[in-house]
Specification:
Keywords: Cell membrane, Membrane, Transmembrane, Transmembrane helix. This is Arginine/agmatine antiporter. The chain crosses the membrane at residues 12-33, 45-66, 87-115, 127-143, 155-177, 197-217, 229-255, 275-298, 319-341, 353-380, 392-411, 417-434. Pfam families: AA_permease_2. This protein is an all-alpha fold and 443 residues long. It is 74% helix and 0% strand. The protein is built from 18 helices and no strands. The chain has helices at residues 14-25, 33-37, 44-68, 76-84, 86-115, 121-124, 126-145, 148-175, 191-203, 222-251, 254-259, 263-272, 274-308, 326-345, 347-382, 393-412, 415-426, 429-442.
């Protein structure tokens, strides 16, 4: 019997990387998604199926890129830089970095709102909620500053804790499923309208599938570990998403499910009583914390990878004694803190600023997927002598599928979001020119 190799000291092994992928995908959204999909009934499973296929295509793109470029840290940025050069690499790194820390602000707010189940004063006091949110993001930053193994262990523990209530409710729901509750299309919407709508909702659930490729320098045997973790993590998330949707639609009538503010917790309460409601609420808090831990790990690595290629200022690549790119990590968390301060002290205007930045973050998260789908083919073209004609068949299929999936995601986010995303990328051009000047002066 063969045994999986032990992770080298300070390195992320297969299970830590898989936990990072699953943990970053399954954040706060999965706890609310069944309620959003209830109005579409079982027709939502068609949307899940299509988006799962698209996500698996992208997972295969990242897996193949990781096997071709195993030691390239920075994930999407590194692959796009390799495939399309400095300028495209800078734009993606710039947009992706902003998306990471703005998204972390959103996750922190979600985590504090779930904590309100246990500490109602957080719902009544903006000051208490803001202080808790800022404390939470700095706690996670401290964990990540202690090295990759520290954040990897947290990823495994939090992923297990978050999966237990989700899996428990899902399995029980499938066992006690009431077929009368499962309606194919309860509102009788045209399928041509219902299926794209469910796809638009389910697309966001797969953001984060590239997570294992970002800290490649901290991964044990990256040429094997990253591809396996990426595909395995995406399959685990897809299976849980689809099964939980079926289970919850079979536990509650569509109208009740659609009106639920905490569908998994309400389902647990109906199955096992009040204690289960709080247990699942605790799982939701841990889910947010685990996702925040994983995304926080990435917010330091992206600017550091760009700085090593002289596309970002050199201070981003400074590391602490644990080998963590500490300047990028701390600066990102400082920016998250400013966003949270706007959110919790600015009243309506603060909320509007916050939502505005999150919209920009969403748009800039999606662009790297489209670029990476084509970057794989660009890297293969650069090394065309290594490949036989038949070696191109599978990459062409899943790159094409992943590219169409990414384009659909961007289209589904709406014209206004795309416009602001483009403006945000253009705002990075002066930074690129400044860095270009610095490189010329130093040369």
């Amino acid at each position: 019997m063969s045994h999986a190799p032990q992770a080298a000291k300070g390195k992320l092994g297969i299970w830590m990387c898989t936990a990072l992928v699953v943990g970053n995908m399954i954040g706060s959204g999965v706890f609310l998604l069944p309620a959003s999909l209830a109005q579409y009934g079982a027709a939502s499973l068609i949307g899940w199926g299509i988006t799962s296929l698209g996500a698996i295509c992208l997972a295969l793109v990242f897996a193949r890129l990781a096997s071709l470029l195993p030691h390239k840290a920075g994930g999407p940025y590194a692959y796009i830089h390799e495939g399309f050069g400095d300028f495209a690499g800078f734009l993606i790194a710039w947009g992706y970095w902003i998306a990471l820390w703005a998204g972390n602000a959103a996750l922190t707010v979600a985590g504090v709102s779930y904590l309100g189940v246990f500490f109602p004063q957080l719902n009544d006091s903006n000051l208490a909620a803001g202080a808790t949110a800022i404390g939470l993001i700095w706690l996670v930053t401290w964990i990540n500053s202690r090295g990759a193994q520290s954040s990897g262990r947290v990823a495994i523990v939090t992923t297990l804790i978050k999966l237990l209530p989700l899996a428990g409710v899902t399995i029980a729901g499938l066992l006690y499923l009431n077929p009368d509750f499962v309606v194919f299309n309860p509102q009788h919407k045209p399928l041509a309208e219902a299926i794209p709508a469910t796809m638009a909702l389910t697309l966001w659930a797969f953001l984060g599938l590239e997570s294992a490729s970002v800290p490649a320098g901290d991964v044990e045997q990256p040429e094997r570990t990253i591809p396996r973790a990426t595909v395995l993590g995406t399959l685990i998330a897809a299976a849980l998403y689809i099964a939980s949707t079926i289970a919850l639609q079979g536990l509650m009538p569509a109208a009740t499910l659609a009106a639920s503010a905490a569908p998994f917790a309400d389902a647990a309460r109906s199955l096992w009583g009040e204690w289960a409601y709080y247990a699942v609420g605790f799982g939701a808090v841990i889910s947010c914390f685990g996702a925040l831990n994983g995304w926080c790990l990435m917010q330091g690595h992206i600017p550091a990878a760009a700085a090593r290629d002289k596309l970002f200022p050199a201070f981003f690549k400074r590391e602490n004694a644990a080998g963590v790119p500490i300047v990028g990590l701390l600066l990102s968390t400082l920016l998250v803190t400013i966003l949270l301060a706007c959110k919790y002290t600015g009243g309506d205007s603060g909320v509007q600023i916050f939502e505005f930045v999150i919209l920009l973050a969403t748009a800039t998260t999606l662009l790297p997927y489209a670029f990476c789908a084509m970057a794989l083919l660009a890297v293969m073209l650069q090394r065309h002598r290594q490949f036989r004609p038949r070696d191109w068949l599978a990459p062409l299929a899943f790159s094409g599928g992943g590219f169409v999936f990414a384009l659909w995601t961007i289209f589904g986010s709406g014209a206004e979001v795309v416009m602001w995303g483009v403006l945000l990328l253009l705002a990075g051009l002066p930074v690129y020119l400044w860095q270009l000047r610095e490189n010329i002066v130093k040369a």
